[in-house]
Amino acid sequence: MSDTPLPPCSVLLLAGGRGHRLGGRDKGLVEWRGRPLIAWLHERVRPLTDDLIISCNRNEDRYAAWADQLVRDDTPDFHGPLAGMRAGLAVARHEQVLILPCDAPQVDDTLIASLLAAACERPVMVRQGKFWEPLFCILPRALLPVLEAGWQAGERSPQRILRQLDPVAVDCPEGDPRLANLNTPELLSGNRLKD
């Protein structure tokens, strides 16, 4: 990380999905290189915050070891990451919330520092070419009412909501391995952590 102090933030790790591509297994608890995926993210972000939030909809007893707070969707049936983002922003103790998916263990300090350094009153999101990655972002907690209004209007896509808010881009090359979602058995067995 750089010598410039980064702003205080809450960290929200999204681990509340259905795990459809893994046969219904809880993605955050699937092992990769001898440790659950959530453990890799925890190791990366723990030094950044005193408010580490995990969004999970099952296995709360197991996730508790890696979090300061646990949240769950307020609706059943796994409505996607926007549900977890709403729940996390609602309890976050800091004004800025770093959000990462639990199945991206190769995210590094440089990328996280770039996101945090750009933190402002707008969403900050990773962008690869023309494609936005809304699950790698910094959201001001003040945007919760906007997310909530979108949710109540039936929107379930974080990308569609956040793109309407003139997001700040943190550009990454296409195919950046730091953004790889290890969410299939093939990806879990074939991917290697970079040195």
What brief labels describe this structure?
195 residues, alpha/beta, Spore Coat Polysaccharide Biosynthesis Protein SpsA, Chain A, seven-stranded mixed sheet, 7 helices, 22% strand, disordered C terminus
What is this structure's SSE topology?
Blueprint: E1 10-14, E2 31-32, E3 35-36, H1 37-45, E4 52-55, H2 60-63, E5 69-71, H3 81-91, E6 96-101, H4 109-117, E7 124-128, E8 131-140, H5 144-152, H6 158-163, E9 168-172, H7 185-190
Parallel strand pairs: 1-4, 1-6, 4-5, 7-9
Antiparallel strand pairs: 2-3, 6-8, 7-8
Helix pairs in contact: 3-5
Low-pLDDT windows of residues: 191-195
Rounded average pLDDT: 86
Number of helices: 7
Any idea what the radius of gyration is?
15 Å
* Element order: H for helix, E for strand: EEEHEHEHEHEEHHEH
**Which fold name is given in CATH as the topology?**
Spore Coat Polysaccharide Biosynthesis Protein SpsA, Chain A
Q: CATH architecture, please?
A: Alpha-Beta Complex
Largest sheet: 7 strands, mixed
Strand order of the largest sheet: 5-4-1-6-8-7-9
- For the record, the CATH class is Alpha Beta
Q: Total number of β-strand segments?
A: 9
- Portion of residues in beta strands equals 15-25%
**Terminal Cα span:** 16 Å
Protein structure class: alpha/beta
Shape: globular
Provide the CATH superfamily. Answer: Spore Coat Polysaccharide Biosynthesis Protein SpsA, Chain A
Helix content: 25-40%
- Domain count, please report it: 1
What does this molecule look like?
It is a single chain. The protein is α/β, with parallel strands linked by helices. The protein has a single domain (10-190), classed as Spore Coat Polysaccharide Biosynthesis Protein SpsA, Chain A (Alpha-Beta Complex), CATH 3.90.550. The chain has 7 helices and 9 strands; from the N terminus they run βββαβαβαβαββααβα. The chain has a 7-stranded mixed β-sheet, sandwiched between helices. Helix 3 runs antiparallel to helix 5 (144-152).
